[in-house]
Amino acid sequence: MESLEDRRVLSTLYSAGGSDNPGGGAEGEAGEDYVPDQLMVRFEPGVSTTQQEAFLTEQSATVVQEFQTIDWKLIELAPGRSVTLLDTANTWADDPLVKAAEPNYVFQSRVIPDDPFYTFQWDLNNVGQTGGTPDADIDAPEAWDIFTGTSNTVVAVIDSGIDYTHPDLIPNMWRNPGEIPFDGLDNDNNGYIDDVYGINPSAGTTDRMDGDGHGTHVAGTIGAAGNNTEGVTGINWDVQLMAVKVLDDTGVGTTAGIVAGIDYVTMMKTQYNINILVSNNSWGGYFYSQPIYDAIVAHTDADILFVAAAGNDTNNNDIIPSYPDSYDIDGIVSVAATGVVDELTWYSNFGVTTVDLAAPGGTLLTSAGWDILSTVPGGGYDYKAGTSMAAPHVAGVAALVRGLAPNFDLLDTKQLLLDTVDLLPDLDGNVLSGGRLNAFNALSAVNPAHVTGTVWSDENRNGSIDAGEQPIANWTVYMDLDNNGDLDAGEPSAITAVDGTYDITAYGGLGTFTVAQILQPNW
């Protein structure tokens, strides 16, 4: 017999919230935690059908539903109880005939953020709000139902800087753990004084402030804080954004400055163990630069996916290469732009061998609502368009993928993004994958958070499987990423493997169980 106090109920993460009103009838209304007058009940093994029916009759309860693969039943109680549903469940669980009982909890999707301008972000969720084609988007809400990002992942925004004081970006700004902020010293001895949020190699300073607005807009698409009642939401609700200012306040950069910026990011990963997994590069031209090529090779050799905009000149990059996106480097992902009706935009560069995929970039026509809404310096928000706006969608989804699946390297991630696009007629023959980015498809294909196999519950919490302890069927197993013993929002992974036995914590349905073994795991 197991009472609810024996388990941690996950209503704080998944339920709609609410109260427990005695007397029945009022429980389970909108905003509450469970369906009124209903319990999920599992009888002890060996309790006969006759005994079960007698027990339910005595309790003025009836069976509403039985299940094919588990021996739980959905029970309807007579209304008008004098005790709460939770107390009723615990009373039933104390009965020698009953193995466990719990309310029929209400679960609520967490996918829709409360950021007030989210409804204008058609690129994330297009419902035709700007006159575009419904679902001409990256399916962000569906993806967020799987994963919303993690602050363990760092994305380098190699651009015109970031307004690191923007209220929607402050929570997700990377902060150099080796620096004492603004003390005028190079505390970590990496060659840069006070590189707290990043660097500005072009000016020879560490002022990462964005005077152009381009980098701040890019950063917001990747990782404006989500579900914080502020402005817009980024593709990653949680992430770390590193500001690498290689373009000046007119949007212009040099080879030396760009190489220094890429070099800084690579160094911070390889020498200072900063978990940089993706960089976004919404800049380019038509000059082949060997130093930039070499810097990108070192960058991708460090397992940092290099996402690049394909360019805005209606150019076939297969014929006239655009750089850096057309460098023959496996770790580069080149991104074209689509608009509100899922078309290849009129301005976007293309190339069936040199451009990998497309993503929403805005239409760059008369209607600002057809462009991409994101953060701009000074705490504001504005629309911009271009492949510069398309690339951070790919960088953002790549960060989600690598946060969800830390075992994925950059080539795994790139291939996954290309394999999971939405195929579009307008992109067939214009980009390698023939499609537009889809975040939900990508995360669904990763799916390391779902472990299949035989899961045994260690019900007495002694760390071993004892006689009478049964396998749990149809449970989802989530893994404890930060090893704090808790299922935190968005946590999917971290497995300790010893001779094929996996000691993790399983969170399924309504309770928390220690899993002593997963037999024949498949992930």
How would you describe this protein?
A 7-stranded parallel sheet has the order 6-7-5-8-9-10-11, sandwiched between helices. Strands 2-3-1-4 form a 4-stranded antiparallel sheet, covered by helices on one side. A 4-stranded antiparallel sheet has the order 17-16-21-20, with no helix packed on it. By secondary structure, it is an alpha/beta fold. It is built from 10 helices and 21 strands. Helix 6 packs parallel to helix 7 (290-301). The two termini are 33 Å apart. Residues 1-32, 447-457, 471-483 and 491-523 have low confidence and may be disordered. The chain folds into 3 domains: 4-105, 2-Layer Sandwich (Alpha-Beta Plaits); 119-446, Rossmann fold (3-Layer(aba) Sandwich); 452-522, no CATH class. It has helices at residues 11-14, 49-58, 85-93, 140-144, 214-223, 255-270, 290-301, 387-404, 410-419, 439-446, and strands at 34-43, 61-66, 72-77, 98-105, 149-159, 198-199, 238-245, 276-281, 305-309, 332-338, 357-360, 372-376, 380-384, 422-423, 435-436, 452-457, 471-472, 497-498, 501-502, 504-508, 511-522.
